[in-house]
Design brief:
- The structure holds 2 protein chains of 2 kinds.
- Chain A is mainly α.
- Chain A has one domain.
- Helix content of chain A is about 70%, strand content about 5%.
- Chain A has a 4-stranded mixed β-sheet.
- In chain A, a hairpin with a 6-residue loop joins strand 1 and strand 2.
- The longest helix of chain A is centred in the middle third of the chain and has 44 residues.
- Chain B is mainly alpha-helical.
- Chain B has a domain of about 70 residues: Orthogonal Bundle (Arc Repressor Mutant, subunit A), CATH 1.10.10.10.
- Helix content of chain B is about 50%, strand content about 10%.
- Chain B has 5 helices and 3 strands.
- In chain B, helix 1 crosses helix 3 and helix 2 crosses helix 3.
- The longest helix of chain B is centred in the middle third of the chain and has 14 residues.
- The chains are: A mainly alpha, B mainly alpha.
Chain lengths: ~325, ~120
Amino acid sequence: MTAPLILLGYALLIGTLGARGLQRAKWPDRSPGLGILAWQAVTITVVLSVMLAGTALALPTLPITTDLADLLRACALALKAHYATPGGVAVATAGAVLAAGVAARIGYCLAAGWAMTRSHRRQQREALELLGHRHAGSGAVVVQHSTAAAYCVPGRRGQVVLTTAALTTLDDAEMAAVLAHERAHLRGRHDLILASAAALMAAFPFIPTFRTAHAQLARLVEMHADDHALGSSDRRVLATALVALSGAAHPAGALGAGGESVLARVQRLAAPLRPLGRGGSAVVLLVAAGLVVLPLTVAAAPAVASAALDYCPVGFPA
Amino acid sequence: MRQFGELEAVVMDRLWSWDRPVVVRDVLKDLQRDRTIAYTTVMTVLDNLHRKGFAIREKDGRAYRYRPAHTREEHTASLMEQVLAGSGDRGTALLHFVERMPADEIARLREALNSFEPSKEANGR
């Protein structure tokens, strides 16, 4: 009974204090790639811990053994004992519902979100095929429009799209920076990172951690793509392009809510931060891996312990 | 129907350039001036365009007459309206280079742009 409680407590701790700490930390802006990994580790840990807690409630502790016959006998004995205790059935059912419910809810939201995304993209590609034309040289699709904008349609045949106004607003160097940024999105499949974060947010809208994670991931993938663009472009050129294309909100369009994150991107280009060193990166990687591994160990611990004890039914003479 | 993508663009261009409804044979004749193409292919392409909402067709005797549902400009405008409006929360279908922002936010961005260290001034504009 302790393992499920520890797991739920752990999920709560990581989902509140852990997420808040990561949100306040300054290092993700320095190394956005590691920041993305850290946020993914936090969300996966929360989900995994809750599901493991449910599973641990539903299933009695089974000792670890390589002998199938032993395992089956132990299983039968343990199940009998588990369901014989008062309230055992209720607790087990609650656990099963929790684990299966979380898995089903996430699966459903992932599938629904993905279906929607795919249909939006297909519409985009079909319309672009008829309305746009290829930009000689860059391979981007150009659409006749008076608002300067650049975006990409991710997928296996990812496309970068520019408006004619963007072509006239940006000079060649700025254009190269924009293209490099968008290609980094496409190559890194940043859309998949955001799609999974959005699915979690949609699955559990009442959990603020997932909303924060989605917002932070959206900001970090932009910074990550900016850093890629800096491989071939100057900082000031990229920042100028950012400011040029964020201008003059489209009258019919909703205003972007991410003003702060765009400002942070420009400031970050203006006063470059040193990326995390080898030591710092190693710490982030270890902590991220530890976050995910810990609940697995907690869930498995009672089984390991019972295998080690000699009053355990495994190996009983028949 | 992917293989018709390029052909659909060509046919739609023709539909936009004519200001009258046309039958499959009109399009076929026009296309055959610079390529070999079968009647059924043109028919399929026009049918696709109709299905996707780009072309409208009306029965005229035994054949359909096709014309564009909207002008190219109208289509582009509505496409871009969707794209630009979607920079916030319309899921993750598209990734934008930068979100569009109101004027006062832009002023703060320009300020940040001016804060670039002077040594880099020579590289910029």
